[in-house]
Structures are given as structure tokens and as C-alpha cells.
Design goal:
It contains 21 helices and nine strands. It is an alpha+beta fold and 431 residues long.
């Protein structure tokens, strides 16, 4: 019997289209182990199912695979162990066991119902009711299950159509779903950025606006994770503009003032087949202020590496332009570091009013930055001391003067010229 139609009039799938992960022997071993239990049911669920329905295939790696089962955690562990597979209790308090077959992890979670929520976490009880499990999920497109053979099961009746059509919709009442976990506000926008098409669901948007105050209950780490995932979408701009319109963006990122610059950066990524860089895109949203960037990174609990990178790209005082000579490029890359210079160059490209006309020059500049390895100044403090400079801050000052000359000389490796310069500096300023 044919399934319902999508908005194009085509029939919706009743089985998963060809999916690489569905044929993985390790995934099959996990499912076989679970289904060997008397009366146990197990189905694939979540992103691995949704993405295949939407036509997104992971050619460059294996996607995460999630399984829902009627078996309770202790049964899951027993069944996996009996099959010779490793069972890791990664989230046993919430019914999740990670099965590992030949180093391939598969998350297995027992069907659940929420009995109490506080906007951040839920107390759950296990169930054998697939509809009840689907009803506790956040979005309809995430409440689609697939049998071992790929046959689809859509207990809510709209999940498959919503996945195909790009309709990001809360399961049931949006207010109820959001009150269960306020992070779902950000997930709503993030999933629209990655999976949505057309206009955003009005009921969902209105509910997000009503519950903005709940965002304050969320941990900084959870907010940062969702923001960076959203910014990793090919085109996050429609979702971000809706976040701004509802007040959600101001609630999580009040420093965001440059959506137009980010929009241009996203267009540059698309035109040049660049992989989206979430942290660079976050920088594009922010003002050129290293201290503010550092404060934001600390507030969001970003890693030290992320905080350093964000502050560096927004605090660089080097002038970067598309027609830089090789020599100018090397100077700037030495002072900033190639990685920071590339970040700054991307931001300046996004600000260039003639960016389309200058595209060839910007494209040529990036490889120049990326391919150059900054040399080390071939002069040590010991050599400066031997030239007659006493111990103390004078050594650093002389080194800095010689280094400035060395940079201006395009990083010459002529040791004789370097020593002569050192002698001249010492004679004129020290002895």
C-alpha cells in the first residue's frame, strides 16, 4: 500500500532508500544481538534515519547510528555480552548503552516516557509503547523509526512527510515540548538551518518567543554547542534572522551585530566550496573587539583554543587586503600567524564592497597564506649577549630591533648580514 504524498505530489518512502550504514556488518551485529532476545523489539531512530529520508548520505565517514529498543538497559547489556559485543553504560541513568562491534559504536536506548521535567532534564520511566516514546521526542522528523530491513515506522503520522518536505515541527504542543527542555528552542532553529525548507513553523516560532526566559536555565556549554552546530549549516542565515526577530538571538548572543557580514561569508563559502567553519562564522557575527570576544568565549565556556582564536581574529590590527604582494603577505602572516591571518582575510573578504570583482585576488591570497611556514629568527639571546649587550631587558630590546629589520629584509637567511645588523644596533644604542 502506498504511503501519503509529500508537497510535490510524489509518494513518500515506506522503506529507507539505500543507506551505507544500514549495510554495515557491525551495525547488523548489534541489531541481531538485540532482536535475539525473547519478545525484544529494536528499531533505528533519529538522525541516521532522518538524513537518509532527506537524501543526505555520509560519503566521507560513518554517521552516528541510534537504536531504540523495548529491552531495558540490563537486558541490553546481557544481550550484547552474549553476542560477544562490548556494552558501555554511557548513559545508563537515561536508558542508554553504547554497543561496540569491531570498534563501531551504536547507541542503544530503551523506550521511555517522561514523568517529570524541569526545563533542563527529565525523570523517565521505561516503556514498551513506541507511540509514547515518539511523543516525548522534540521534533516530528526525529520521531521516525526503521526496522532492521529498512521498513519505516512513523507512529506520529507526519514525521516522514516533514523530513521529506523540510518542515521542522515540534511533536505535539510546542509549549509543552519546550517546557520539558528549554534547549529545544535552540534545537528548533538549528534543525531548520540544517533541514528546513520554506517558512518556519509559526506555532513553533511563537512558542519559542514565549519561552525566551527559560534559556537562562541552560548551561553555557549546551548553548555554545547548539550555536556552533547551527553555524555549521550550509546556510544558517534564515534561521538566524528568525532568531533575531523572535528575540532568541539577543538572549543567547547579544553581541551579534553583523548578520550581513556573516551572510556574505556564507555566500563566499558556497561559491568556493569551502567547508563551513562555525567559529569563523561566530567571529563574523561579532564586532572587532578582542576583549569582548574573550569575554563572550569565557561566558560560553568555549575551549582555550577557541577563545584564543576568536580573540585573535577580532583583535588583529594588521591591514589585510586582496592585492597584497608576496612580501606583504609574509610580513602579515609572520606577525599574526598564518591561521589567524587566514581568519582575518576571510572576514575582510566578506567586508569587501567589490568582493565579486576581487574574487580571483582573494582566492589567490589564501593559498599564499596557508602554504607559507614562518621562519624562526636565526639569532639567539646568547648571540646578542656575546655582542656586548648586558643581561636584562636590553637583550630583548636589541633582539626586537634586529627582528624588525629582518622582517623588513623579507626574512633573509644571510647570517653575515644579520650579524652586521646586530653589531650596528649594539654600537648605536648600547655601547
Amino acid at each position: 500500500m502506498a504511503g501519503p504524498e509529500n508537497i510535490t505530489g510524489a509518494m513518500l518512502p515506506e522503506k529507507l532508500p539505500a543507506a551505507g550504514w544500514l549495510g554495515e556488518p557491525e551495525v547488523g551485529q548489534v541489531m541481531d544481538a538485540l532482536l535475539a532476545g525473547p519478545g525484544v523489539e529494536a528499531r533505528f531512530v533519529g538522525g541516521c534515519v532522518r538524513d537518509v529520508i532527506r537524501g543526505r548520505h555520509h560519503y566521507d565517514g560513518k554517521p552516528d547510528v541510534d537504536v531504540a529498543t523495548t529491552a531495558e538497559p540490563h537486558e541490553v547489556i546481557e544481550l550484547l555480552t552474549q553476542a560477544g559485543l562490548k556494552a558501555v553504560p554511557t548513559g545508563i541513568d537515561h536508558g542508554t548503552i553504547t554497543a561496540v562491534a569491531n570498534h563501531r559504536p551504536v547507541e542503544v536506548t530503551t523506550l521511555r516516557c517522561d514523568v517529570a521535567t524541569d526545563g533542563r532534564r527529565a525523570d523517565v520511566v521505561y516503556t514498551r509503547d513506541w507511540v509514547a516514546d515518539a511523543e516525548r521526542r522534540d521534533l516530528t522528523m526525529n520521531a521516525i523509526y526503521a526496522e532492521r530491513d529498512g521498513t519505516l515506522y512513523d507512529p506520529l503520522g507526519t514525521g516522514i512527510a516533514d523530513a521529506v518536505n523540510g518542515t521542522v515541527r515540534f511533536v505535539g504542543d510546542p509549549d509543552t515540548r519546550i517546557r520539558e527542555d528549554y534547549l529545544r528552542i535552540l534545537r528548533f532553529f538549528r534543525f531548520f538551518a540544517h533541514c528546513g525548507a520554506g517558512e518556519m513553523d509559526r506555532n513553533g516560532l511563537a512558542a519559542c518567543a514565549r519561552h525566551i526566559d527559560g534559556i537562562a536555565q541552560l548551561s553555557a556549554e549546551r548553548i555554545a554547542t547548539e550555536l556552533l552546530k547551527l553555524l555549521a549549516a550550509e546556510d544558517p542565515i534564515p534561521a538566524l534572522r528568525q532568531m533575531a526577530a523572535t528575540g532568541v538571538l539577543n538572549a543567547v548572543l547579544p553581541e551579534a551585530r553583523n548578520i550581513d557580514r556573516l551572510q556574505t561569508l556564507c555566500a563566499i563559502d558556497a561559491d568556493n566550496f569551502f567547508t563551513p567553519d562555525p567559529l569563523l562564522r561566530l567571529g563574523a557575527l561579532l564586532p572587532e573587539d578582542a576583549e569582548q570576544a574573550d569575554a563572550l568565549a569565557r561566558r560560553l565556556r568555549l575551549s582555550n583554543a577557541q577563545r584564543t582564536r576568536l580573540s585573535a581574529m577580532l583583535g588583529a590590527d594588521e591591514r589585510i587586503f586582496c592585492y597584497m604582494s608576496v612580501r606583504e603577505t609574509r610580513r602579515a602572516a609572520y606577525r599574526l600567524g598564518p591561521a589567524v591571518m587566514r581568519d582575518v582575510a576571510m572576514l575582510r573578504w566578506a567586508e569587501d564592497p567589490k568582493r565579486d570583482g576581487n574574487m580571483v585576488q582573494w582566492r589567490a591570497l589564501l593559498p599564499m597564506i596557508e602554504s607559507w611556514q614562518p621562519p624562526k629568527l636565526p639569532l639567539s639571546g646568547e648571540q646578542v649577549k656575546l655582542a656586548g649587550v648586558p643581561e636584562g631587558p636590553e637583550i630583548g630590546r636589541v633582539l626586537a630591533e634586529v627582528e624588525a629589520w629582518w622582517i623588513d629584509a623579507d626574512f633573509t637567511q644571510d647570517e653575515y648580514a644579520l650579524i652586521e645588523r646586530l653589531k650596528a644596533v649594539v654600537q648605536a644604542t648600547v655601547l
